[in-house]
Amino acid sequence: MTTVAAIDCGTNSIRLLISADGPEGPTDVVRTMRIVRLGEGIDTTGRISAAALERTGEALSEYAEVIEKHAPRAVRMVATSASRDATNADAFTDLVMARLGITPEVITGDEEARLSFGGAVADLPDDGRVRLVVDIGGGSTEFVRGVRRADAAHSVDIGCVRMTERHLHSDPPTAEQIAAAEADIIAHVDTALAIADPRRSAETLVGLAGSVTTVTALALGLDSYRPERIHHAEIGYELVAEVTDRLLRQTRAERLESDVMHPGRADVIGAGALVLRIIMERAGLDRVTASEHDILDGIAASIR
Question: What are the structural domains, with CATH classification, of the chain?
């Protein structure tokens, strides 16, 4: 049985997937996440902070033990927005080498988008419909259009961490702060759609990453975070808008009262939900399908 390990290090979280070939396709052996906020402050300072590197190092040490236990045939780690933007990215590379013994691949936004698309559509029905896949991360959001493979892709620097740090400073944010974030997001979304889906040909919207899955869990009224309920759940625009409005009116402490809310996401989920709502508005798509499969699955497939 072939076993591979995929690691995705983004602006907000670092995730590990150990996947094995099964009789009906790849199966998860381990799928786990740590919120490390690698990109904390990068939009302002341009550098990865010492505290962020320390948090990331702790997560990498945990992952090294898990990888050693399962002895995968291949390991691939990719790093995205925060590592692309940081002037001291070499410190991050050295850290990964010291903890895992491999070199992280700092990939472009377009490559990130294509890996995300491959992971997201692998277990969706092959119905011939054109899909727009959006991966809302901490520092960037990737837009990819295609059927079974990506036809066009574009990455823009909007994400839940970046938009929170740039605009949503109060707890809860003020109306003026929300309006500024909306204007910023709209400008970037329109740019991305003009490149990734210029003719608005996409028939369905698929949303990836923690902002989308958390909004979906809240929209479904789940009493705990249940991936099996969230994966491929379809949510209408009205529910997305309702959840977004509620999150932006709540304080961080109030958001933490929800059993589906990861503590490391509570301060940035309002911005992530806002990005999703605006994408649906600007793309003219009134429903979104949430996927628990994303870039991690695309990375694993690339080395299988």
Answer: 3-107 (3.30.420.40), 124-295 (3.30.420.150)
